[in-house]
Structures are given as structure tokens and as C-alpha cells.
From TrEMBL, chain A:
Belongs to the thiolase-like superfamily. Chalcone/stilbene synthases family. Residues 387-467 form the Beta-ketoacyl-[acyl-carrier-protein] synthase III C-terminal domain. It comes from Camelina sativa (False flax). This is 3-ketoacyl-CoA synthase. Keywords: Acyltransferase, Membrane, Transferase, Transmembrane, Transmembrane helix.
Automatic annotation (TrEMBL), chain B:
PANTHER family: PROTEIN ECERIFERUM 26-LIKE, TRICHOTHECENE 3-O-ACETYLTRANSFERASE. The gene is LOC104771281. Signal peptide: none annotated. Belongs to the plant acyltransferase family. It comes from Camelina sativa. This is Protein ECERIFERUM 26-like. It comes from the Eukaryota. It holds the Pfam family Transferase.
Length: 497, 431
């Protein structure tokens, strides 16, 4: 982490900690008051002795009405308390789409198509080759059928059929796994950033599965790779309002219409990294799902850095000189991602870190402020707060950066790296492939906490914390079922193409 | 024939079909001296089905079985590269099989009746290897859909990389993979046995293979002879007991072509697959070229009776020993064109396994057998090629295709001796 931004960080962090300390004091004010009173009362009682206590009790002369009123009052207060507690949100199950082998893109095929299509621009071809060599992708990632054509045929029909293929396959699998009947779906949220036809993709799902007419459906578009967690946040809020309901979230990114057809180098980068994928997730607030749900949602923190111009423009969709639309990734993407991450973890840190870490951080803060400004800032150890990490597989650089910042070991980021290798960057659904990897390896135990971090254009950093509800047996089917034994693989720094 | 027609086949799209599993090792498939000798030629197989197994194409199960099959054939999805010494070899880099989709504006029956050799060549991809073959797919599949149903699946490759048996086994294995059956002839990439290669020199670097354009315009015609016509001939004309249908039909066409050419034309080149002729037979799945080209001479063949010629052919083929095959292999670099330098007769009897012709067993859906299978050789020399192929009906029938200069083919089409056998003539362009 560069030293220059640190003073601003510590000042903003300091402010946050002051606020949090103040909140702690206010929230537990009653306990802070009650404890001394109870202590004094207990001392008094002990001093008085049993006969004096009985005398005091008899002199109060309680009658029936007063007793009843008091008890009703107590019951009323406790009911209000339990009713206003936020509902527990469960993740019942989820399913990830596994593309057919015909959609596979070996390196040689990708480079050959690139050479054939960009035959007048050898420099752009060289650039793509260098990106692919260092990308961390493997030879089994998949692109939709329309992109396999020479030249690609990204028609609207092709985009719709890709959407139907990935979404319906994932949803069929989810319905089969959970035994849910389509007419029992109460809330439907579909997020796909770059393809937004009319009628929407959520309408397409409702049409295919004949969902109910009073379904609460939402279609999120344009929100980037972190839209998956935004959908989870929305589902959580909706499930707080609607009792006894379930919600299906479909996270995907449709590659077909967004394959960049020009030759501007910075805009060719997504072509090398983005791949086909989708995930369908079933969430519920029903008590009956308590036993079969896989996870409970503990926290969800959204951080938006859009107010800062540099962050806003760093992932920008625009036309190139020839009129081809593509996504321009700025060179300081990693720095901006780092800043967004810091903003997010300063919010989530106090929610999840054990008191010991927070105290240490506070003490180091105090130390740096008061005694020695040159003291290294204490980075809380998030490994104490979580057993598993799912870092959005946005690219090798993102995972490397986060591994360095959070001081994670190779095993912690294994799920992210292997998902990038096997499936590429599947945008909002990549977190679910990573979670599926951890489950397929048999590492998910009851009580384990998982941290999902996603970045998205805007620039956003969203994170979700899940707690595993029951030990998950290695799934027999799923996107990793035929290849999990080959993983983890060693991914070289540069693959010779 | 000779009437100019606009192209009835229109190529609509092109994509690359990939194998289902990455080939883990950076394998290299070398070429033998025989492979390199075949280099001016290209090979094309066209299988006609009355009903297409393809539907939407992008999501068909047939595509998935093709991908699974391609995993077993790394040289098919690889790319040709030159070593620093200038020797060509195949880098098995998984780049993929180029697949083209085309539409034919007539129905399959109309096509078989009225298309000629030039039309049929539109059903597969042609085109020689460029100077830089790194992005050029050697194996190309073309799916041609006829109006009203029916499909012609065309597979082409440089003859350097495979022979007709290899391509036939590949297509048949595809159908077996599609129907979830066991693959009867899995590919074998071992080199030619040492008994054949002991005396050959190391593979020499390739000279530039520029194909000489054939000066005369060639045409192709296909004659279908039924079992009964062969039996009729034996009853009428008598033949020695060991005569096979190949002997009879090869002799028939040799004599008639010699007559048409008006040369004494006493020498032919006999092309026989030697997979099963070795003391340790090579499996049918042997990948590459396993063809023996040998010369056969007879003076005044045009005046000879078919019986006499058939006996000569029979003797020649039966006497193909390992030593003869080896010596023919040693001389293989001497000819410039393996096919057509002399009139070439191609023997495909080995494709009939236990009475079943292999190419007609390539069935995607039960009950939908190919109605016809064509084999075409590209860059054939001026003397022409006669191919005696198995017939879709099992038994003694054969399908003979001739590729000769145009006037010779038109004379053959009205030749009385041939017509005596009552062939059904297809793909000759006759309206």
C-alpha cells in the first residue's frame, strides 16, 4: 500500500472510530447505567438479610390488578422486541451454469480468431496475446456460440439465446435441487449489466416458468460485476418487508452483444477476460428453511466511490474512433480498487472483527497519532474473522492485490484463482462459482464464515458475509464435479503461447 | 454438361469446432516420407444423408459428440508448423476444426441426379496450405443442408495428413460417439512399423509444394453397379472363381478408359491400402497415410477381355507382400503426383469389414443410413483416377467414380460395355 494516501485514510478512519465508539457508548448506555444500579441493589439486599426483604415485600401490598398489568406490560415489550428484530435471511441453495464443451475457447483458437479478424492490426493481436499469457485463465473457459464464428455474429437474437441458455439452465438446476415449484417464487431479481432487452430478462424468466402474476420482479442492469451482491442486498431488504417469502436471484453477464469488435487496445482487454457464466440463488426468510438452508446472511456492506471523478471514469463504456462500442479500463484501476476496498473494510471491519483486533487497531492508531507517526499502521487480521474468502475473479491483478492487502495465504485465494482459471471472469456470478469450489473441495463446515468481495464499475466495492448453516457434503453435480480432482493447478506467471 | 450454372451451394457461416478436453502435453505429430509424397493432393469425403442430424446447430448434441471425438484426434485440431530445419509437422495445439455451414438450393435427390463433379466440389472446402500455415486449419468440415431436408457432410484435408480410411474412420467414430456406442476403431498415432521404414532415408525437408494447375478440364461421373449386375456378368461371361467385384469393375473401367483414351495405355497405378496386408496388421484407426502405389502393365489392354485383365489385377493385388510394399515405399519420392501421373485405380475393398461397408455404417440416427458417399482427390494428374468403392447395398455391388478429362468422361457415359451392366449414373451433371 502506498504511503501517500495513508494520512487521509487515517483521518477518515479516525473519524469513523470516534463515531463507532460514541455509538457503542450510546447503544449500551442502559447496560452502563443498569450495571452500577444492579450492583448497588445486590449489595443492599445482601446487607439487609432475608427477614427484612420479606417485610419490605409485604409492605408493598401488591394486588391482582397491578400484577396483571405489570406482566402484560412486560409481555408487550418483549413481543415488540422480537417482532422488530430483523428476520434471518437464509441462502437455501444456489446453482451455477456449466457451459457445454462446444463453447470452450483454447488459447490457440482465441489467438487464431484474433489474428484472422484483426489481420491488419498485428500490434493489437500482440497485445491480446500478452494479456492472455498473463491472464491466469485456463484452456477450458467458454465463450457463447455466437463468438465462435469468424467473424463473430453478435445479433440480438444470439444475445437472447445466450441469455435463455444460461439463465434457464441454471434455474432448471436450481428448481431441481431445491424442489421449489415455479409458482411458489415470491421475489425475482435478475441482474445482467450489459444486456437489457425489452421485455426485460426478468420478464423472460417469468414467461418461461409461468411465475405468478403478483410476483415482485426487479431487473438490474448497468451495475457492473458487483451487481450480484447488490441483488442480494435488495433481496434482503425485500425479504424484511415480506414475511414468509422466498426470493430467486439470477446473476449473469451476457457476453454476445458486448464483444468488442474494434481494435483499440485498452478496450480489447475485456475480450480476453470475460467469459460465459450464470448463477441462480434461492434465498428465503421462512423458518421452515432453517434446516435445509446452506448459509445465513450475516452482513452486507456496500461502498460506492462514484463521488470521486477518478473512480467514476475508471471503467467507462464508450465508442472508439471507428464507432465500435467497448469498455475502456483505465490504467489506475488497481489503485482505485484498492481505495474502494479500504473504504469497504473500514466499514465491515468493526462488524466482523473480534474485539481483540479492533482494540489492537485502535491502540496502533492511538500510538501513531500520539507517540510515533512513523509506526506502521496495523492491518487487522481478517483471517481471524473468516474461514473462507471469495474474491471476485476480475483478473489476476485484482486477486494479487487483495491477497497482498489483506495478507492472505495462497489457500485463502485458491477459490478465486482456480475459478479464474477454469471459468474466466464471469462477472457477477464468479463469486458463486468460487463458493461452489470451496464446497466441492469439502472445506465448508457448519459455522464457517465466508466473505464475498465484489468490485464493479462506478466504482463500487460490495461485500457480503455468510455464515455456514450446516456442513455441506461434496456435491455430486455442479460446475466443478468433473474437474475438481485436477484442482488446484499451478498457474504460471506467463503461459507460453 | 458444359452448361454454365450459377453456384447452387452458398456458404453461410464459418466457425471453429474445438475438442472437449485440452490436450495436456505439447504434442507434435510428425509426417512420414509417404505423407510428404502425398502432399500435392487434397482429400475430400462427402457423406449424403436423407435426414440431417443437425438442428439449431449451435446447441446440437451432434456438436458435443464432435467435440468429444476431436479430443481423441489431437492432430486433426492442430496446426501445421515448420521446424527450424524446414521439416513440416503438426503442432497439437487444440486450435480446432474449421466448420462451415452451407445451404444448397435444391433437394438431395435433385442434386444427386443433376450435379456434376464441379458442383460436388462446392460441398467441401478446397484451398491449399498457405506459406504461413499457423492460422490455417488443415481439416475443414462443411455441413451442407439441402432444401427439404437432407444433408451432405464434407470433410477435407491435405492428403499429406490423412488418407481416405482415416477420414472414414473419423466420421464413423463421430456417429458412434453420437449414439453413445463404443468406438470400434479408436485412433492410433504410432508410426509406421519398422519393417516398412528400415531402409527409408530420414525425412527430407519439403520443397515448396506448388500445385500445377491441370491444363485440361476434368469431370467426374459416378456409376452405381448393383449386386445383380455383377452376378449377371459372372453367369454370362464366366470368370475365375476367386474374382472379386473389384477385379471385375476395375478391369472393366481400365479397358474402357484405355479405349476412350486411344492410347495403348498399358500402365496403371494401383492404389491399395496396406493396413491389413502387413503380417502385423495396422489397426483401421491408424492415423495418416497407409497407401501402396504400385504399377501394373499390360499391353493393348483395350483389346483384352475383361476376364484376362481381371485376373492380372487379382494376381497383382494378392501378391502385395511386405517386401513389395516396402520397396514401393522407398520409391515414393520419385513421382511428382501420386494420383493421376498414370491412370490410377483406387482399391477400397478393405473398407468392407465383415460384409458391411464402413462408410455406410456411419449412422447418426437409427435407420438413417447415408444414401451415398463420395471421395474426391484434389490436384489429380492428367491421366485421371478410377475409384472402386463399396456400395450402400451390401454384397457384390460397387460404386465406381471416374475423374478424367471432360471428353473422356462424356464418352464413357455412353459406353455400351459399361451400360451393359445397367449402372445407375449419378453426380455426372446429366440433366
Amino acid at each position: 500500500m502506498p504511503q501517500a494516501p495513508m494520512p487521509e485514510l487515517t483521518s477518515s478512519v479516525k473519524l469513523k472510530y470516534v463515531k463507532l465508539g460514541y455509538q457503542y457508548l450510546v447503544n449500551h448506555f442502559l447496560s452502563f447505567l443498569l450495571i452500577p444500579i444492579m450492583a448497588i441493589g445486590a449489595v443492599e439486599l445482601l446487607r439487609m438479610g432475608p427477614e427484612e426483604i420479606l417485610n419490605v415485600w409485604n409492605s408493598l401490598e401488591f394486588d391482582l390488578v397491578q400484577v396483571l398489568c405489570t406482566s402484560f406490560f412486560v409481555i408487550f415489550i418483549s413481543t415488540v422486541y422480537f417482532m422488530s428484530k430483523p428476520r434471518t435471511i437464509y441462502l437455501v441453495d444456489y446453482s451455477c451454469y456449466k457451459p457445454p464443451v462446444t463453447c470452450r475457447v483454447p488459447f490457440a483458437t482465441f489467438m487464431e480468431h484474433s489474428r484472422l479478424i484483426l489481420k491488419d492490426k498485428p500490434k493489437s493481436v500482440e497485445f491480446q496475446m500478452r494479456i492472455l499469457e498473463r491472464s491466469g485463465l485456463g484452456e477450458e473457459t467458454c465463450l457463447p456460440p455466437a463468438i465462435h464464428y469468424i467473424p463473430p455474429t453478435p445479433t440480438m437474437d444470439a444475445a437472447r439465446s445466450e441469455a435463455q441458455l444460461v439463465i434457464f439452465t441454471a434455474m432448471d438446476d436450481l428448481f431441481k435441487k431445491t424442489g421449489l415449484k415455479p409458482k411458489d417464487v415470491d421475489i425475482l431479481i435478475v441482474n445482467c449489466s450489459l444486456f437489457s432487452p425489452t421485455p426485460s430478462l426478468s420478464a423472460m424468466v417469468i414467461n418461461k416458468y409461468k411465475l405468478r402474476s403478483n410476483i415482485k420482479s426487479v431487473n438490474l442492469s448497468g451495475m457492473g460485476c458487483s451487481a450480484g451482491l447488490i441483488s442480494v442486498d435488495l433481496a434482503r431488504d425485500l425479504l424484511q418487508v415480506h414475511p414468509n417469502s422466498n426470493a430467486i436471484i439470477v446473476s449473469t453477464e451476457i457476453i454476445t452483444p458486448n464483444y468488442y469488435q474494434g481494435n483499440e487496445r485498452a478496450m480489447l482487454l475485456p475480450n480476453c477476460l470475460f467469459r460465459m457464466g450464470a448463477a441462480a440463488i434461492l434465498m428465503s426468510n421462512r423458518r421452515s428453511d432453517r434446516w435445509r438452508a446452506k448459509y445465513k446472511l450475516s452482513h452486507l456492506v456496500r461502498t460506492h466511490r462514484g463521488a470521486d471523478d477518478k473512480s467514476f471514469y475508471c471503467v467507462y463504456e464508450q465508442e472508439d474512433k471507428e464507432g465500435h462500442v467497448g469498455i475502456n479500463l483505465s490504467k489506475d484501476l488497481m489503485a482505485i480498487a484498492g481505495e474502494a476496498l479500504k473504504a469497504n473494510i473500514t466499514t465491515i471491519g468493526p462488524l466482523v472483527l473480534p474485539a481483540s483486533e479492533q482494540l489492537l487497531f485502535l491502540l496502533s492508531l492511538i500510538g501513531r497519532k500520539i507517540f510515533n507517526p512513523k509506526l506502521k499502521p496495523y492491518i487487522p487480521d481478517f483471517k481471524l474473522a473468516f474461514e473462507h474468502f471469495c474474491i471476485h475473479a476480475g483478473g489476476r491483478a485484482v486477486i494479487d492485490e487483495l491477497q497482498k492487502n489483506l495478507q492472505l495465504s495462497g489457500e485463502h485465494v485458491e477459490a478465486s484463482r482456480m475459478t479464474l482459471h477454469r471459468f474466466g471472469n464471469t462477472s457477477s456470478s464468479s463469486l458463486w462459482y468460487e463458493l461452489s469450489y470451496i464446497e466441492s473441495k469439502g472445506r465448508m463446515r457448519r459455522g464457517d464464515r465466508v466473505w464475498q468481495i465484489a468490485f464493479g464499475s462506478g466504482f463500487k466495492c460490495n461485500s457480503a458475509v455468510w455464515k455456514c448453516n450446516r456442513t455441506i457434503k461434496t456435491p455430486k453435480d455442479g460446475p466443478w464435479s468433473d474437474c475438481i480432482d485436477r484442482y488446484p493447478v499451478f498457474i504460471p506467471e506467463v503461459v507460453k503461447l | 454438361m458444359g452448361i454454365a450454372q450459377e453456384n447452387r451451394v452458398e456458404v453461410k457461416s464459418m466457425l471453429t469446432a474445438v475438442s472437449s478436453k485440452p490436450s495436456r502435453s505439447a504434442r507434435v505429430h510428425p509426417f512420414t516420407a509417404l505423407d510428404n509424397a502425398m502432399s500435392p493432393h487434397t482429400l475430400h469425403v462427402i457423406v449424403y444423408y436423407p435426414r440431417s442430424p443437425f438442428g439449431s446447430f449451435d446447441l446440437d448434441s451432434v456438436r458435443i459428440s464432435l467435440s468429444e471425438l476431436l479430443s481423441m484426434y489431437p492432430p486433426v485440431v492442430g496446426r501445421v508448423a515448420k521446424t527450424p530445419d524446414g521439416i513440416l509437422e503438426v503442432k497439437c495445439n487444440d486450435a480446432g476444426l474449421r466448420t462451415l455451414k452451407a445451404k444448397v438450393c435444391v433437394g438431395i435427390d435433385e442434386w444427386l441426379r443433376s450435379a456434376d463433379g464441379h458442383d460436388e466440389s462446392d460441398l467441401t472446402a478446397w484451398g491449399d496450405m498457405p506459406e504461413d500455415p499457423s492460422t490455417w486449419a488443415p481439416f475443414r468440415l462443411q455441413i451442407n443442408e439441402f432444401q427439404g431436408g437432407g444433408v451432405a457432410i464434407g470433410l477435407s484435408c491435405p492428403h499429406r495428413q490423412a488418407d481416405a480410411t482415416t477420414l472414414t474412420v473419423l466420421l464413423k467414430s463421430w456417429t458412434e460417439a453420437q449414439r453413445r456406442r463404443c468406438i470400434v476403431h479408436p485412433p492410433s498415432f504410432s508410426p509406421l512399423p519398422s519393417i516398412l521404414t528400415d531402409d527409408t532415408d530420414a525425412v527430407k525437408p519439403n520443397s515448396a509444394t506448388i500445385s500445377k494447375p491441370i491444363s485440361t478440364k476434368t469431370a467426374t461421373a459416378t456409376f452405381r453397379f448393383s449386386s445383380s449386375s455383377f452376378k449377371k456378368y459372372i453367369e454370362e461371361d464366366g470368370i475365375f472363381p476367386k474374382a472379386s467385384p473389384f477385379d471385375v469393375f476395375a478391369a472393366l473401367f481400365w479397358t474402357r478408359v484405355a479405349l476412350v483414351k486411344r492410347k495403348s495405355h498399358d500402365r496403371v497405378c494401383m492404389c491399395v491400402d496396406f493396413r491389413r496386408l502387413l503380417p502385423n496388421p495396422l489397426p483401421y484407426g491408424f492415423f495418416g497415410n497407409a497407401l501402396n502405389f504400385s504399377s501394373l502393365e499390360m499391353t493393348n489392354v483395350a483389346d483384352q477381355g475383361i476376364v484376362h485383365v481381371a485376373r492380372l489385377i487379382n494376381d497383382h493385388v494378392t501378391n502385395l507382400t511386405v517386401e513389395k510394399i516396402r520397396s514401393d515405399l522407398n520409391r515414393v519420392g520419385e513421382q511428382e503426383l501420386m494420383y493421376g501421373g498414370d491412370l490410377t485405380i483406387v482399391n477400397m475393398e478393405h473398407m468392407i469389414v465383415e460384409g458391411d461397408p464402413m462408410m455406410y455404417e456411419a449412422v447418426f440416427e437409427d435407420g438413417v443410413r447415408p444414401v451415398h458417399v463420395s471421395y474426391r482427390i484434389g490436384n489429380v494428374g492428367g491421366e485421371g483416377v478410377i475409384m472402386v468403392m463399396p456400395s450402400p447395398e451390401k454384397g457384390f455391388g460397387r460404386v465406381v467414380s471416374v475423374t478424367l478429362p471432360e471428353e473422356e468422361v462424356s464418352k464413357l457415359l455412353v459406353d455400351q460395355e459399361i451400360l451393359r451392366f445397367e449402372p445407375k449414373i449419378i453426380l455426372s451433371g446429366v440433366k
